[in-house]
Design goal:
- The two termini are 31 Å apart.
- This protein has 17 helices and no strands.
- Helices cover 78% and strands 0% of the residues.
- With 409 residues, it is mainly alpha-helical.
Length: 409
């Protein structure tokens, strides 16, 4: 977002309300993803595509997001942060309708391209606003915001599971969900910070290569998201194929990983405030590495499940802190955040297939040995997130100075 973040002063109560508003935005954003994920089998059947074709189609959200993310900064510059987020979030929630309408592979790819583009632009806009609120509050909130995204994804997937169990047509389900989430999102956006660019400020380029700082920070995010994608998609398979576990027990590994990530993100802000971004990520990297070693050396399922849980705990706060560091790494927060987001989206896209290809050539044990090595990369690279440790901007100081003059509720 190309705003002069130190030029606009907001009252303490307004900033606090903005925190809850942006948390609601993250929840709505996650709910769209959860709603879509549970109806993929219905969408596959409706479009008449096989598993290989579905795999091709599911690459298009990441492609669309990567192409469109750089546009978010220009949109925020032109319309202001609040209006831009309102429009981009509405595009994202309404885009939920499109995939279920697709009758064939070509239209499904086009629908998922638009779905991913709106997801990416709204993702950049809400993370940039989250960093702005964090600056003004002078305490970590980004981990909690991403935790709320996970909560939204769980709510959306729960509703989708019920709809699928009842045999509801996904076109109807997603239309109703999209309208409800659009209304909730627009309501939440009314309270986010209304940041605007200075009149003489140059607009950012519509498309530009990410700055070098974003590439370095993104490399750390890449390691975390690779471990996340590998664990989410392959943990159950690992327990089944390597440790001969039942399907039900294998599914517990994925649940353990997801729950530890969600809990750690919601609780992570306090840890970051106490120990700082670098020490938090370095410790998390050690936990994730230990978890990976437990997985590859596990003699039975219980040890592997503990290992996957440790990995989820260790990598949970890395991506939120990477976004926070990117937002403070230069004069153009949106461009830097878009760069980091593009790298992490790419990591999430290639991780499952990379693990599968390596497993086919060697074994799943070797694949998760690679995950352990990348997890240790968090320990080595944590220092680049030092920008995520807040330095109080002039606006945050002004907020505190004005606090005494504001009536307490």
């Amino acid at each position: 977002m190309t705003t002069d973040s130190t030029a606009t002063v907001f009252g303490t109560q307004e900033v606090r309300r903005a925190r809850y508003a942006i948390a609601a935005v993250f929840t709505v954003h996650g709910a769209v993803t959860g709603s879509f994920a549970t109806r993929v089998p219905w969408i596959q059947e409706h479009a008449g595509v096989n598993a290989g074709q579905l795999g091709i189609a599911l690459a298009f959200p990441a492609i669309g997001a990567s192409l469109a993310m750089p546009l978010a900064g220009a949109i925020s510059h032109r319309f202001g942060a609040r209006t831009a987020l309102r429009g981009l979030l509405a595009l994202w929630t309404l885009a939920l309708i499109l995939p279920a309408l697709a009758p064939n592979l070509l239209t499904l790819c086009a629908a998922l391209l638009a779905y991913g583009a709106s997801a990416g632009m709204s993702d950049v806009a809400m993370n940039a606003l989250g960093v702005e609120v964090e600056n003004r509050l002078d305490k970590s909130i980004m981990s909690g915001l991403h935790g709320m995204w996970s909560v939204g994804a769980l709510i959306g997937s729960a509703a989708g599971t019920v709809a699928a169990h009842l045999g509801a047509d996904a076109r109807l389900h997603h239309t109703v969900a999209a309208l409800v989430l659009t209304a909730l999102g627009l309501t939440a956006c009314r309270r986010v910070l209304d940041l605007r660019s200075e009149p003489d400020q140059e607009p950012p380029p519509r498309f530009a290569l990410p700055p070098k700082s974003a590439l370095i920070i993104g490399a750390v995010g890449f390691c975390a998201v690779f471990a996340e994608g590998a664990s989410l998609d392959w943990s159950a398979v690992y327990l089944r194929d390597v440790l001969d576990s039942s399907a039900g027990l294998a599914a517990v590994a994925t649940t353990a990983f997801t729950l530890t990530m969600a809990v750690a993100r919601i609780a992570g802000d306090r840890v970051v405030d106490r120990f700082g971004s670098v020490r938090t990520v370095r410790t998390g990297g050690l936990l994730a590495t230990a978890g990976g070693i437990m997985v590859v050396t596990a003699p039975h399922a219980a040890v592997a499940m503990c290992g996957f849980g440790l990995m989820g705990l260790g990598i949970a706060v890395v991506v939120p802190l990477a976004f926070a560091a990117a937002g403070r790494s230069g004069p153009n927060p949106s461009q830097a955040i878009a760069g980091v987001a593009t790298i992490t989206y790419t990591s999430g896209l290639i991780a499952p297939s990379a693990i599968g290809s390596l497993a086919e050539a060697t074994s799943l044990v070797v694949s998760f040995g690679l995950v352990s090595v990348l997890a240790f990369g968090l320990v080595l690279g944590a220092g680049v997130l030092r920008a995520g440790d807040r330095k109080v901007p002039a606006s945050a100081g002004a907020v505190r100075d004005a606090a005494a003059a504001e009536p307490r509720p």
